[in-house]
Automatic annotation (TrEMBL):
Protein known as: AcrR family transcriptional regulator
Gene Ontology BP annotations: negative regulation of DNA-templated transcription; response to antibiotic
Binding region for DNA: 34-53
Pfam families (alphabetical): TetR_C_1 (PF02909), TetR_N (PF00440)
Length: 212
């Protein structure tokens, strides 16, 4: 693959760089990510990455944007459309991306949308939810609550993120005779179905908001 005269490698795109960054973070952890290491993954100099992202902060913003792009590409609800199935699809799509890229969880949990592209997407979602009959404040609250729920439950499901291995507790082999209910949970698996827990929590939240 050749390098263009302006320093841009032919075939290299913003999306390809961000997908490579997601893969790197999954393998090595967020703290290990640098422009130099990402360039090495892509077979280019770090300066080539700077053509697309002027600094690491912009790259991190781009990773948040890319996570949402991968989570849900459908249009926001149109006027008179039900917003409930749209928000359900969004939350399940968001969880799927976070499970596929657990290294991004710390970033998703702590870094709000900040780039013009990300803010444009969020503004479009809010406009669609308003057109579907939701007040602006409630639409914003719901997006925040559902995103926070998704991140929190997914982090609990993953148990650890790349770069933080060995920090999770281990109950295997522990004598739980003094904790009969917990012992039954671990023996039977009741209450440990992450898919069911997530789907039920989302449905309960959406039903509650729909009833307001």
């Amino acid at each position: 693959m050749s390098q263009g005269g302006n320093g841009v490698k032919k075939g290299l795109t913003r999306e390809r760089i961000l997908d490579a960054a997601l893969g790197y973070v999954d393998g090595h952890g967020l703290a290990a990510l640098s422009m130099r290491k990402l360039g090495a993954e892509l077979g280019v100099e770090a300066m080539t990455i700077y053509h697309y992202f002027p600094n690491k902060e912009a790259l991190l913003d781009g990773l948040v944007d890319r996570t949402l792009e991968l989570a849900f590409t459908g249009p926001p609800p149109a006027e008179d459309d039900s917003w409930v199935p749209w928000l359900r699809r969004f939350t399940h799509g968001f969880r799927s991306v976070l499970l596929a890229h657990p290294g991004i969880l710390p970033l998703a949990a702590t870094r709000p949308l900040n780039s013009p592209d990300g803010l444009r997407v969020l503004d479009g979602w809010l406009g669609g939810l308003r057109a579907a009959g939701l007040p602006l404040g409630r639409a914003m609250d719901m997006l925040n609550v559902l995103a926070t729920l998704t991140i929190g439950l997914t982090l609990a499901e993953v148990g650890r993120t790349p770069g933080h291995e060995g920090s999770e507790p281990d109950l295997d082999g522990r004598d739980l005779g003094a904790f009969p209910n917990l012992a039954e949970v671990l023996t039977t698996g009741v209450g440990l179905d992450f898919d069911h827990r997530f789907a039920e929590a989302v449905d309960i939240l959406l039903a509650g908001y729909a009833g307001l």
